[in-house]
Amino acid sequence: MTNDVERKGRKDRKKIAMALRASRALRSAIASAGLKVCATIALMALSLVPLLAQEGQWLMYSGSYNSHRFSPLKQITTDNVAKLRPAWVYQPPGTGSIESTPIVANGIMYVTSGPTMVAAVDLRSGKPLWEWTRPIAPSVLNLGFPRVNRGVAILDTMVYVGTLDGYLFALDAKAGIERWSVHVGENPVGHSITAAPLVVDNKVIVGISGGEAGIRGFLDAYDAKTGKPAWRFWTVPSPGEPGSEGWPGDSWVHGGGATWLTGSYDPALKLLYWGTGNPGPDWNGDSRKGDNLYTSSLVAIDVETGKARWHFQFTPHDTHDWDANQIPVLVDTQVGGRPRALVVTANRNGFYYALDRKTGEFVFGTQYAKQTWAKGLDERGRPIEIPGMEPSEKGTLVYPSLQGSTNWASPSYNPVTDMLYVPVREMGSVYYKTGVEYKPGTYYTGGSEKRLDEESWGAVRALDVKTGKQAWDFRLPTPTWAGVMATAGGLVFSGSNEGNFFALDAKSGKPLWQFQTGGAIRSGPMSFLVGDKQYVAVAGGHALFVFSLGE
Amino acid sequence: MGRTLLNITRAGALLALLPVTVAAQTKPAAAAQPSDMASGRRVFDAQCAWCHGNEGDGGTGPNLHGTLRHATTLNSIADIIISGIPGTDMPSFRLGLTDRSARQAATYVLSLSRSASRRGTGNAERGAEVYQTTGCGSCHVVDGRGGILGPELTSIGGRRGAVYLREAIVTPAASHPPGYLVVHAVPNSGPDIRGIRVTEDVFWIHIRDANGNVHALQKSELARVDRELEGTLMPAYDSRLSPAQLDDLVAYLATLRGAK
């Protein structure tokens, strides 16, 4: 694979020259899904492997820094997708389920399963070359999320993975041997890592889970070679810092704001875009009256310094557990006839937002799923809340449910249709508020929910990125946990809790192909080349399925 | 849904009549304090009454008066509230309740278990006869015998309270047994199919009709599928049973606590 790519690269001197420039200048990955920016990454120490999905790789959790999850591969099309067949299936050791999006680099797939296992799988045969398992004792805490891992990052000869017990490991990409590790967070007080790290500028950026355990959230950067800490960004300010006025007393100490999903990156602005989780305690906001910055927000962080350049809070003083960790998608499009560099996101709170990604300015926002807690957004994007929708002792019925109108399952953006395809959860909950006290290593939530399961459903929903208006809706029996991938073949791939992996027509939402995997799909689909042939992969239940066109 | 919310509202009204106390004690003493009882009732009304009934005499969850099946001490009841009971509908409240709130709720539940249940007037032996003669067994299994159209009842008395059981007989459409959603499929051609949804994914639905036959249907060949959230295949028995027979049948069902 490396040689193939190198050969291709040699054919295109222009591309190599650009790759070298980008490599020397940044040694970092830049990908804009084959649109305007075509930059590259130095993957191997001595050889350059262009970081382009065109070359058939999938080099980071969301496919590219802009998190489009758009594959430019177009062998599999609306015309031939009906011939898609399983090529091989990989079953990891242990009983953990796979919520990972695999990475493909240099002819190898890197996939993780729960609680913390990494496998390097040969693309042609489906055989594991190595499997690395972090021993996770039953006593290791996972307060507020399952015992899962959602993927790795890669740079040069190393693969990076966070562990359920709060460490970041660098593994040798060829042998799965540990090169270094750092202790990121204390698991006995609720810190865990389930998110895939992101490699930027020779740094490994890693987020932390624990928003139901009363942690104070942060985002960390470590030197990719050595593991030496580069910076830490606290998502909850300490007294005296900007935003601290929204945290009475010592409420900031257990203020939450976990960073439990992978963010995005704009190499031109050198800005990371990272979503933050709910404030703590989740459902009882009495002790933290105020906006509770920077929880339930999107924060744009300078990758050099680790300082926030701007922030945008979707749900001020959240009391419904509406984390804003959903993947921010970087989009260049026209709004009102004017070209805009945007970061867009379908938020857990039921609204779709478009922000200027340089300044954080609110461009527009609109409701995309059923919600009963806000009349709308004001001119600055702040919700106009309906009184009496907070959790209560007797129970308060609110849409969406605490898992939100969408959750960690990734959306996908197709630059050709200019649509954002969002995995949607249509569900309401009765929210309860209870007493709460902080006790290290236990839940710090102050309430609960009763979900309205019977009347709930899910969808893959196509939104016009310029307006947030629904273009089509493909209905699912239950609120989905499956990520979405759009491809240049005019397809949208996603899955269901009921095990279906399916392909839709990107323009109409019409189903064109499906395969029953036999396990709930709680992972993101991705696509890659083996030689010259396109493959599509997705995890269902405890197994990873890889598909290609049959004869 | 409206019914359940009504219950919550009623629980809230009850709550207003109770003295509001602040439980200040932190020591994990086994001895119940009066304040624990009052706080425990508040927790119970908000979190437990939904399933166990406002007075703890059962609903979709079991009656808590009399000997409890899974726990008999304050500690073991508190453990169950925190951890739930695997294999049953009893969820874990680890997320929503502090250890102290769980212990307070356990204090109240323990007091319920020590107070006699408000006994129904039914006679379980006569109820067993009603069960036989009314033909309940043609659709329900008890101890391995009976039909499969409706939910198995072998341990129904341990899982549901008398109020729920009575309502399920009188107004079956309101009982919503999990796994027995009624669906109505209209194929593009051919006769409609109505029955219990056996399984459903994005592209297929399997329906068991009233004769017990399973239909495997591809959704692309259906004009539509209606989910009847208030639907049931069970006839309403309010006019088929005398009030005394109904009391007896409920008393019999309440004795069903698992295979002998």
Record keyword descriptors for this entry.
heterodimer, A: 551 residues, mainly beta, Methanol Dehydrogenase, Chain A, 5-stranded mixed beta sheet, 4-stranded antiparallel beta sheet, disordered N terminus, B: 260 residues, alpha+beta, Cytochrome Bc1 Complex, Chain D, domain 2, SH3 type barrels, 5-stranded antiparallel beta sheet, two-stranded antiparallel sheet, 7 strands, 14% strand
Can you walk through the features of this model?
The complex is a heterodimer of chains A (551) and B (260). With 551 residues, chain A is mainly beta. In chain A, 4% of the residues lie in helices and 37% in strands. Chain A has one domain (13-549): 8 Propeller (Methanol Dehydrogenase, Chain A). In chain A, strands 1-32-33-34-35 form a five-stranded mixed sheet, with no helix packed on it. Residues 1-54 of chain A have low confidence and may be disordered. In chain B, β1 and β2 form a beta hairpin. The longest helix of chain B is centred in the N-terminal third of the chain and has 19 residues, at 34-52. Chain B is 37% helix and 14% strand. In chain B, the strands form two sheets. In chain B, strands 6-5-4-3-7 form a five-stranded antiparallel sheet, with no helix packed on it. In chain B, strands 1-2 form a two-stranded antiparallel ribbon. Chain B is an alpha+beta fold. Chain A binds chain B through residues 144, 212, 283, 393-395, 397, 430, 432, 434-437, 439, 442-443, 445-448, 450, 452, 454-455, 476-477, 496, 498-500, 502, 511, 514, 516, and chain B through 1, 5, 8-9, 11-12, 15, 42-43, 46-47, 50, 93-101, 176, 181, 200-203, 220, 229.
